Amino acid sequence: MDCINGHEHVDEIEWIRILSFFRYVFGFALLLDSLRPFLGFFAEKITEIICYFCGIVQTKDYQIMDTINRRIRVRFAPSPTGPLHIGGVRTALYNYLFARQHGGDMILRIEDTDSNRFVPGAEAYIMEALEWLGIKFDEGVGYGGRFGPYRQSERRDIYRTYVRQLLDSGRAYIAFDTPEELEARRAEVPNFQYDATTRGQMRNSLTLPAEEVERLVAEGTQYVVRFLVEPNVDVEVNDLIRGRVVINSSILDDKVLYKSADDLPTYHLANIVDDHLMEVSHVIRGEEWLPSAPLHVLLYRAFGWEDTMPRFAHLALLLKPEGNGKLSKRDGDRLGFPVFPLEWKDPQTGDISKGYRESGYLPEAVVNFLALLGWNPGNDQDVMSMDELIRLFDIEKCSKAGAKFDYEKGRWFNHQYIQRKDNAELAELFRPILRENGVVATDEKTAHVISLVKERVNFIGELWEQAGFFFIAPLSYDEKTVKKRWKEDTAKQLGELAELLDSHRSFAAEATEPTVKNWIETNGYHLGNIMNATRLALVGESKGPHIFDIMEVLGREETVGRIRRAIEVLG
């Protein structure tokens, strides 16, 4: 829609952004508009000027377009049929970024209409995973709100009302066809479609007398309610990512909207009714729902809700690392990376699938990694905080093509976030691993150790591999390193070094390093031989940070003790 003065159309997302900055200016324009009968020409002209400079789009009645004034409200609506897949996490994240960017609301709705696929514990898992990732909600299951209940199984009465509305208006009909009858039809008819021709040949409220329909329903005969799709109608879907999509209704089935067997609607009806009643402004979901979008548009029309229909954005799939097909759990099992945010134990089989949290990923790293799978800010920046993602995210810049799941990039992100994270925070995450290994250490020592080794790790769990020797003395020595580093005169030289260190007053690295190097030079010893052998004595192998930093953390008594024990064992 354009301004009365002929100014070019401004994209809706830009209107929303403008609104966040000029809310009060708009309010002033509305006030002037209401005073127009009294102020006449002056109010009219001032309103036009404000509209022009702020990008307000007006109708000929000088009404600010309703879309602009509509509050941004999005929803994440998972089904509790198992653990939340990483693709679902990305969908939740994009909804969250969009809502926060525009000062809108984020709703958590549980779509549990498929009772046959319900998995105990799945709902709690979903909520815990989203909380761990920092994806927060304003209302919904577990949060409350004025549009509840937010669990679809608790909204049966609401759905019945709207099923009846469609039946009464002739936009839906009762069908008694059984699964066996439908299977027979599919076997008979190539490319079977439940369309206008099919409905005229089946047992339903369109082909049976009203009295017989009433009798069958009264007798408890199971039935479904199908949406009546009018043939040869062009249905337009304006997708924020994919643009304008037009589909002819002749290729659409008369989808089932309600099943009497469990007294619950299908996804198609429930999500339309809920989105409307909960005043959802934008539906951001996976592209697997794009083929259903025309049906959903027709449902909005059937209810008379087309004017308040949300805008759609269908996200491209996450693909296998090779790019050929949708990412699955099997890909993670095959290549050794998680596809779930948290560890999941299958309640039926007992099988355990590892999660990102248990694999040592930081939630900030997972969020950053997922945000860039299918979207980028248009610059060279990779590492972004949640606040930066909120500021930069643009739903219209999401890719139409699927994104390959680069799990090595995920490891890189985690490494970056570990380097940036405060040592005290990392120490808190490392503490459970210390306890598992029977170690009790001060916060100060743990943080110091982490500062020395964190550049070598990608995951929290790798800290023990890199730093365990700081807390527990080696019980054995790597054979290859011994053969390479422990020479005939090593025991004598390290014995002298132990005496030197035992008498040294300060054990800070900056104090011991010059003393030891001066001793080596004075005695004509080989620096590399002494340092390598000392590392073997302190660590048990040839790894670890700067040798004098290791000594400082261990302290005089532990350092000297480890050197003397190595001499005793290795001779």
Could you walk me through the main structural features you see in this protein, from its secondary elements to its overall organization?
With 571 residues, the protein is an alpha/beta fold. It has five domains: 12-69, no CATH class; 71-152 and 316-420, 3-Layer(aba) Sandwich (Rossmann fold); 156-275, Alpha-Beta Complex (Glutamyl-tRNA Synthetase, domain 3), CATH 3.90.800; 421-470, Orthogonal Bundle (Helicase, Ruva Protein, domain 3), CATH 1.10.8.70; 479-570, Arc Repressor Mutant, subunit A (Orthogonal Bundle). It has helices at 12-39, 41-54, 66-69, 86-101, 122-132, 156-168, 179-188, 196-199, 210-218, 267-277, 293-303, 329-335, 363-371, 386-392, 407-420, 423-436, 443-453, 462-467, 479-485, 490-502, 509-523, 527-539, 547-570, and strands at 73-76, 105-108, 139-140, 172-175, 224-227, 234-239, 243-248, 256-259, 264-265, 282-286, 311-315, 318-319, 344-345, 352-353, 403-404. A hairpin with a 3-residue loop joins β6 (234-239) and β7 (243-248). α1 packs antiparallel against α2 (41-54). Mean pLDDT is 89; it is low at 1-41 and 50-67. This is Glutamate--tRNA ligase. Belongs to the class-I aminoacyl-tRNA synthetase family. Glutamate--tRNA ligase type 1 subfamily.
CATH architecture of the largest domain: 3-Layer(aba) Sandwich
CATH hierarchy, class of the largest domain: Alpha Beta
Quaternary assembly:
single chain
Strand order of the largest sheet: 4-5-8-9
CATH fold assignment of the largest domain: Rossmann fold
Main beta sheet: 4 strands, antiparallel
Spans with pLDDT under 50 lasting ≥5 residues?
1-41, 50-67
Query: How many helices?
Result: 23
User: How would you describe the shape?
Assistant: elongated
Domain count, please report it. Answer: 5
Radius of gyration: 33 Å
The mean pLDDT is: 89
Proportion of β residues? 5-15%
Please report the total strand number as a whole number: 15
Structural class, from secondary structure content?
alpha/beta
Helix content: 40-55%
The N- to C-terminal Cα distance equals 88 Å
